[in-house]
Amino acid sequence: MTIEVTRSTCVGAGQCVLVAEDLFDQDDEGLVVLIEEDPGEDRVDSARRAASLCPARAIQVRE
Ligand code: SF4
C-alpha cells in the first residue's frame, strides 16, 4: 500500500490526524504532512478511513 497526499488541496481539517496519527501530521499552517508513505498492510483500514473522511479528498490510498 502507498499513500499520497495533495497538500495543495488540503484544507487543514485534521480528520486524517484524528483517525491515524501514526500516518499523518499537520504542519504549523495546519496542512497535512505524510509521516508514513508506505506503511504495513495492518494500517490499510486506518489509511482508507482517513481518506474517506478527508473533506478535501486530499488523500489517496493505492494497493
Ligand atoms: S483530513 Fe484532509 S483536509 Fe484535513 S488535514 Fe487531513 S488531508 Fe488535510
TrEMBL record:
Stored SUPFAM superfamilies: 4Fe-4S ferredoxins
Q: What's the cofactor?
A: [3Fe-4S] cluster
Kindly indicate whether the keyword Cytoplasm belongs to this entry. Answer: no
Q: Is Transport there in the keyword field?
A: yes
| Alphabetized InterPro entries for the sequence | Fe-S_cluster_ET
Query: Where would one find coiled-coil regions in this protein?
Result: none
Domain of life (superkingdom): Bacteria
Q: Which UniProt keywords apply?
A: 3Fe-4S, Electron transport, Iron, Iron-sulfur, Metal-binding, Transport
Q: Fetch the PANTHER family from UniProt.
A: FERREDOXIN (PTHR36923:SF3)
What's the name of the protein?
Ferredoxin
